[in-house]
Design a protein that fits this description.
185 residues, 11 strands, flat, alpha+beta, 37% strand
């Protein structure tokens, strides 16, 4: 054996003897961008539909509106929401809540999310309602004040979803029509 030999280097021999493959690292070093530990949990989708609308004649820079199940538009503020609603309804049927913002002189961006709308009896007072039911105990709050009793329509809405403990929030839209959301406890 010669003094200067060209065999494997010491680190290659040690890796081979340890059973490590010298061609790839002992662990996967590629970035894991899709894993929760790296970038967190993705946010829930905020919009069910969004689109760009050419509407140069609309005034203002922002517009919010609600489309009721019968197609009636309730505009919050000043403006004509019809061209924006027409563009949205190619992707989403009422009822929905929408927000629009001017992008430049000609175009508006508009996005909407579905909502649930129910009609409550005429004797229901208040604009903001919250009914909480937990282990049979009911609490009704109307416009920040605790009220006695309950609202049967809100209870039946939650029971139809198979919930025993829940919170139903209702916000008056127009007349006796309320936007509602149901959350389990």
């Amino acid at each position: 054996m010669g003094f200067f030999r060209r065999g494997e280097s010491l680190h290659q021999r040690l890796a081979r003897e340890a059973g490590l493959d010298a061609e790839r690292p002992p662990h996967d070093t590629t970035p894991r961008w899709a894993e929760v530990g790296v970038h967190g949990i993705s946010r829930a989708r905020e919009w069910d539909a969004s689109t760009l609308v050419e509407a140069p004649d609309l005034q203002g820079d922002e517009l919010s509106f609600v489309a009721l199940p019968d197609g009636t538009l309730l505009v919050e503020g000043q403006g004509d929401a019809v061209p924006l609603a027409d563009a949205l309804e190619a992707h989403l049927q009422p009822p929905y809540r929408a927000q629009a913002a001017r992008r430049d002189d000609r175009y508006w961006g508009v996005a909407a999310r579905r909502i649930a709308v129910i009609e409550l009896p005429a004797d229901v007072k208040g604009h903001e309602l919250e009914l909480a039911v937990n282990e049979g105990e009911k609490t009704l709050v109307a416009d920040g004040s605790r009220e006695f009793g309950s609202i049967a329509e809100l209870e039946s809405l939650a029971r139809a979803r198979g919930l025993d403990s829940y919170v139903v929030r209702a916000r008056r839209l127009d007349g006796q029509q309320f936007e509602v959301s149901v959350s389990p406890l």
